[in-house]
Design goal:
The structure holds two protein chains of two kinds. Chain A is 11% helix and 45% strand. Chain A is globular, with a radius of gyration of 15 Å. Helix content of chain B is 17%, strand content 39%. The longest helix of chain B is centred in the first third of the chain and has 17 residues. Chain B is globular and about 70 Å long. The termini of chain B are far apart. The chains are: A mainly beta, B alpha+beta.
């Protein structure tokens, strides 16, 4: 059970990776069950990327598939004992606490805390987002948005001023399943 | 259950609670605002978001529309009161805004519902000078949030959020101030609009003049028009007079003049300090009421 914010930050850092290409930090990613990393399509531009875990270990990530419309990308990473995120599809209530971990503006493993602003499209007819009242920056892309229990409920994708937009976990799970990989 | 989960659930419940009593307000062209069902039949919103007095449409929590009429407005505290018929929409649970302190966690709720969170940064004295007359907020007021409720962690409404006419402000008018406005409205049947009958422009005061008259303020307002028969005319105000204070409050720009003329001052005789021909003099002006 997550006891407090430092504990929540620790748990999220363990399943958050830094994604880089030729030494340039591009963003974040989430360690997905069975040796994968999920991130945004706009974070991984080529067919491979360097993935750095919180303990400093570096892995090579190979692109399995990318969906530019959904802005999601799936990487395979090779290694043993790699932790994986606890994925949640619990109902996300407006006002509930959310936490994000990522690498904004060059700071590694930074924690941001906020609340759910709204769930749904930003514009009529648009795609559904988890909209969070939390201050994120560019390096947060691809990183986890979690609820107060530490379950990952979304993948941070975009920042619109003080608002952060995350792809709901249901959409991420669908994307991973479509790639032929199971969620568990 | 951890403290974090308890807090998270509490905040979500507070949003749910407050959202049952809010309306979307459409009373200006470009962007809607939010309003709070404060007392049965009375919806409070931000005055600067009410630009039309007819064709005001409210959106209920269930999505249906209901029309509303303007019952009164007080621009000095950026509040407008609308009359609407929605008896099945509960009136908000109003909390004690006098118990609010800097550091209290609060939520701003908009139609949707949408929410943001933060803390009260200070319980300031607003333009009226009375302590606790405005809450400074460290939270984001998203587009359309003006006129909506400031909510405490137990779900009670403790103020009305406003970005003011500028988008950089994040303030809330405390619930006790809103109650005072509504009490006056229900007592008199309308909110009086104070009237002097004067047009002014800002003016910089020359250093030599400030020194001679021991004035701290760097600017004041100069009278460019006085309506005939108006309270200003009857008080002896003339074109060219430079008004430096009214009712004890310094006047540094035309906004100050509007700010100090609260509805309660209608009928009051205020001492108005002016500079005329380089000399200071005091005039006594009886604040009138704009005709309805």
């Amino acid at each position: 059970m997550v006891t407090d914010l430092p504990d929540l930050a620790e748990r999220l850092r363990r399943i958050t990776v830094e994604v880089a290409d030729s030494g340039t930090s591009l963003g974040s990613g989430v360690l997905w069950p069975s040796g994968c990393v999920v991130t945004n399509a706009h974070v991984v531009r080529g067919s491979r990327a360097a993935v750095r875990l919180v303990d400093g270990s570096r892995l090579e990530g190979l692109l399995i598939t990318r969906d530019t419309d959904a802005d999601l990308a799936l990487l395979r990473v090779l290694g043993t004992g790699i932790p994986a995120a606890s994925i949640g599809e619990s109902t996300v209530a407006v006002g509930s606490l959310v936490a994000a971990v990522g690498h904004p503006l060059g700071v590694r493993g930074a924690l941001s805390v906020g609340i759910v602003h709204a769930v749904g499209p930003v514009r009529p007819g648009g795609r559904s987002w988890i909209q969070a009242d939390v201050r994120l920056a560019r390096g947060n892309s691809g990183g986890p948005l979690a609820d107060a229990t530490g379950q990952v409920i979304g993948l941070n994708a975009m920042v619109v001023g003080p608002l952060a937009l995350a792809v709901p976990m249901s959409a991420v799970s669908r994307f991973v399943r479509a790639a032929g990989l199971s969620v568990t | 259950m951890s403290d974090l989960v308890t807090l998270s659930n509490g905040l979500a419940a507070a949003v749910q609670q407050a959202s049952q009593s809010i309306f979307g307000v459409t009373a200006r062209r470009r962007m809607g605002s939010t309003g709070v069902h404060w007392r049965p039949g009375l919806v409070v919103t931000a005055d600067h978001t009410v630009q039309t007095e007819d064709d005001i449409v409210l959106t209920r929590p269930d999505g249906r529309s209901v029309s509303a009429t303007l019952a009164g407005r007080d621009p000095t505290i950026d509040l407008a009161v609308l009359k609407a018929d929605a008896p099945d929409v509960p009136a908000a649970r109003i909390g004690d805004s006098r118990a609010v302190q800097a550091g209290h966690i609060v939520l701003a709720v908009g139609e949707g519902p949408r929410a943001s969170w933060g803390v009260v940064s200070s319980v300031a004295s607003g333009g009226t000078g009375a302590a606790g007359s405005v809450f400074d907020l460290d939270l984001t007021l998203y587009p359309g949030f003006s006129g909506g409720p400031l909510v405490d962690v137990s779900g009670q409404v403790i103020g009305i959020n406003t970005s003011g006419a500028s988008r950089s402000q994040h303030l809330a008018i405390p619930a006790v101030v809103v109650d005072g406005l509504l009490d006056g409205l229900q007592r008199r049947g309308h909110i009086p609009r104070p009237y002097l009958g004067v047009s002014t422009q800002p003016v910089r005061l020359p250093d030599a003049l400030r020194q001679r008259l021991s004035l701290e303020q760097a600017s004041a307002v100069i009278v460019v028009a006085v309506q005939p028969e108006s309270p200003a005319a009857q008080g002896g105000l003339m074109i060219g007079d430079v008004v430096v204070s009214l009712g004890g409050a310094s006047i540094t720009d035309p906004m100050d003049l509007r700010r100090v003329l609260q509805p309660d001052r209608v009928g009051e005789t205020v001492v108005t300090s002016v500079i005329r021909g380089g000399e200071a003099r005091d005039l006594r002006i009886r604040v009138g009421e704009r005709s309805r």
